[in-house]
Amino acid sequence: MLELMQEIYSPCYGRVENILVKESSYIYEWEKLFLIREKNGSLKEIRVGMSGLISSLEVKENQNVTPNTVLAKIKEDLFITGSD
After folding, report:
1. What is the Cα–Cα distance from 71 to 79, expressed in whole angstroms?
2. Burial class, 65, CB count within 10 angstroms (exposed 0-12 / middle 13-18 / buried 19+)
3. What does the alpha-carbon distance between residue 64 and residue 7 come to, in Å, rounded to a whole number?
4. pLDDT digit string (tens) for 14-24?
């Protein structure tokens, strides 16, 4: 198994309303990680198409974010199979 470090960025301007994962927790592909309240008032669910271990959370609840803000760093699990 290979591991690759990935940074998860905010896709929008807004404020972190909820952090739904903990540092060092394992996440699964498309699991809901963060809720961000956008400037227009809508709530955006942040999910990623990878599974792995949260190596660090880079934001706190109620923190303002932009599309350049790193939300978390994940050690992605890459399983190499014979069918690839």
Report:
1. 24
2. buried
3. 18
4. 999 999 999 99
Does residue 76 sit in helix, strand or coil? strand
Those residues whose C-beta lies under 8 Å from the C-beta of residue 42, and which sit 6 or more positions away, are none
Nearest to 47 by CA among 21, 23, 81: 21
Starting from the edge strand earliest in sequence, which strands make up the sheet with 14-19, in order?
A: 43-47, 32-38, 14-19, 64-65
**Interval 38-68: pLDDT, tens:** 999 999 999 999 999 999 999 999 999 999 9
Global pTM exceeds 0.85: yes
Q: Any idea of the CA torsion for 20, 66, 74, 22, to the nearest 10 degrees?
A: -20
Evaluate if residue 32 carries a pLDDT over 90.
yes
Show the tokens assigned to 5: 């470090």
